[in-house]
Design brief:
By secondary structure, the protein is of the alpha/beta class. The protein has one domain: Rossmann fold. 30% of the residues lie in helices and 23% in strands. The protein contains four helices and nine strands; from the N terminus they run βαβββββαβαβαβ. Helix 3 packs parallel to helix 4. The protein is globular and about 55 Å long. It starts with a strand and ends in a 6-residue tail after the last strand.
Amino acid sequence: MPIIGIDFSMANLTMNDASFCLHSLKPGVPNDYIEALKGLYESFTCFSNFKLAYGFGARTMERPDGSLDACDLFSMSGDIQDPFVDDLDEILACYQGTLKTVRLALPVNYTAIIQFVCDLAESDFQRIEDSTQCTNYYVLVLLMAGVIDDLQSALNQILRAKNIPVSIIIVKVGNIDE
């Protein structure tokens, strides 16, 4: 099952021009996240009808005073009960809708999304007696700007994935020189 995780942190602000964000939706300005989503969706369609879309690293949860709390894992569909996206148009709409409802934040934590996927896979894997009976394989693709603030705990979760049906692919978006 393909799971896409998108970095909505402040790491997406470019170093050369602090006013430019990798999530920019300005006409004529390429958005690497949208291009990556298009390519991923096309690739995933070959082997799965189901796709999950999550975000992390943004301020999403409103406090009583109107400020927002940072969130390390949230459904881009806006519905925690139904994080599935059916087609490319829906995932792009979810991505663009998320940009309108969150604020970029720090720190950039990956542990929660990796742990979530490992928990899903582990719960499936523990229900079977023989590993050859495993019917779900999870592929987590993290689209990121390149900063990881919780490196050690994220690595611990990645190491956890070695014994369960999970692959983790990290894709850096943006200018490689930054």
